[in-house]
Amino acid sequence: MKYLAIADELRGRIARGELPPGARVPSTRRLATDHGVAMATAAKALALLGQEGLVHAEPRSGTVVTGREHRGGGRRGLTREQLVRTAIAIADAEGLGALSMRGVAARLGVAAMAPYRYVRGKDELVLLMADTAFGERGYPAKPSGDWRERLTLGGRTLWSLYRRHPWLAQLGPITRPLPLRNLAVHGEWALSALSELGVDAATLCNLHVLFFSHVQGMAIHLEREQNALAASGLTEEDWMDHQGPAVAAMAAGHPTFARMLADLTETGYDLVLDDIFELGMRALLDGLALRFGR
Hints:
- There is one protein chain.
- The chain has 294 residues and is mainly alpha-helical.
- The chain is 62% helix and 3% strand.
- Helix 2 crosses helix 9 and helix 8 (181-194) crosses helix 9 (201-232).
- The longest helix has 32 residues, at 201-232.
- The model is unreliable at 69-75 (pLDDT under 50).
């Protein structure tokens, strides 16, 4: 079976020291591309190595080789919190596409059906993951500052959580809000600030959707960039260099676009999502202040 061959290759590299303890193992997408297999097949290979205790997922680092001092038999006394935290680590490192109930069980070193004692399936697990992630940061018990300062804090707090867990932005459209207790904490903070604009309930709801959409809309690109990097092996800068001729050809006949590219080439430019997020927040708040006389 192909997944066994992939696992054997990685196992050999670990044994030979090519992948020492702490070294990052190729991602699911990279393995799928290199071996010409489906993502599920690559994920199965990593899950097998995880079950053997050779690798484990680390947030924002990916799947890494486990040190000998941490290797051993399967874990006992599984709890729902362990299950959720392990699933979050996998999603942080590999994205939601790599998350499966069997994979989580393998990382925990338990039977494939063990997680079902705590959740009905992947959908319920993802909701628990999201609620846990949104609960990692909160707000002062006694709010201070005006509506603009409080809304800025709310936006930056949400942005920091999406930064930590890029998969959060992929969970669903704004038209179908997730019924999560900890997400409601962020909603209440923003609504309380926006209510000082003195608007009716419908407008208040619309403004909250607009505010949340800015944060989530920017955050969607965080995991997309992770996926693009894993699939192509090219950084943003490498990709732009590779696409240079095509972009220049596209600008032909569009003088403003061409002039902007020429200026940016001369001065240098880095597209930083954090900066654009802040720019958008300021523009949004400036607009609300003008529109509602605040």
